[in-house]
TrEMBL record:
GO biological process: methylation
Any Pfam family matching the protein: Methyltransf_25
Organism listed in the record: Modestobacter versicolor
Name of the protein this chain belongs to: SAM-dependent methyltransferase
InterPro entries for the chain: Methyltransf_25, SAM-dependent_MTases_sf
GO MF entries: methyltransferase activity
UniProt keyword annotations, A-Z: Methyltransferase, Transferase
Domain of life: Bacteria
Classification via Gene3D superfamilies: Vaccinia Virus protein VP39 (3.40.50.150)
Signal sequence annotation: none
Domain Methyltransferase: 17-114
Length: 170
């Protein structure tokens, strides 16, 4: 999940990074350590988690609400393009038409050379909601890559990295 950020930071002075469902902030801390000058925006639904994040990272730009508010939150901040989206959102956030709208909105706001990364547990890839999530990524992005299994994570996890079509359509 950090590798696309490092690529983005080599292209932009202050890459715009959106984290959906930052939770306890484990990934947030890694992102900030990797690229201290990043322009971070988090969106967290759980008020207790949001309070924890605000205390752990004073001054953090955090929206307290569902990921579906992302387009409005970007507009309010004058952010037109996002270099990296990091999502730890569960399946439920991608269910039904709201989920389709969310994936579509992420693709619409991604910089042409940006990346959308989705963390998921390894076992869940083959469950119907996990397969639906993969199909939705394939629908809105030109390329969807799957990482090797991250065995040290408990439980073991994989990361989808979705990127837009290149201008030449490849
Ligand atoms: C698997 S946890 C994230 C793990 C995170 N990387 C960490 O280090 O703790 C999923 C997070 O997504 C949040 N969440 C769930 N549904 C959401 C939604 N619709 N919009 C925003 N956040 C949501 C949960 O409150 C939770 O904090």
């Amino acid at each position: 999940m950090i590798a696309p950020l490092l690529a983005a930071s080599s292209r932009a002075d202050a890459p715009v990074v959106v984290e959906l469902g930052p939770g306890t902030g484990a990934v947030t801390a890694a992102l900030r350590a990797a690229v201290p000058e990043l322009r971070y925006l988090g969106v967290e639904l759980n008020p207790a988690m949001a309070d924890h994040l605000a205390a752990r990272f004073p001054g953090i730009d955090l929206v307290r609400g569902p990921a579906s508010v992302l387009p409005q939150a970007l507009a309010e901040r004058g952010l037109r393009e996002v270099d990296l989206v990091v999502s730890g959102l569960p399946w439920q956030a991608f269910a039904g038409s709201d989920g389709t709208a969310l994936v579509s909105a992420i693709a619409a706001h991604l910089a042409p050379s940006g990346a959308h990364t989705q963390f998921t547990y390894r076992w869940s890839r083959w469950a119907p909601p996990g397969r639906r999530q993969h199909r939705e990524l394939q629908r809105f992005f030109g390329h969807v890559d799957l990482s090797p299994t991250v065995w040290p994570n408990v439980p073991p996890a994989v990361v989808y990295t979705a990127t837009l079509p290149r201008p030449d359509g490849v």
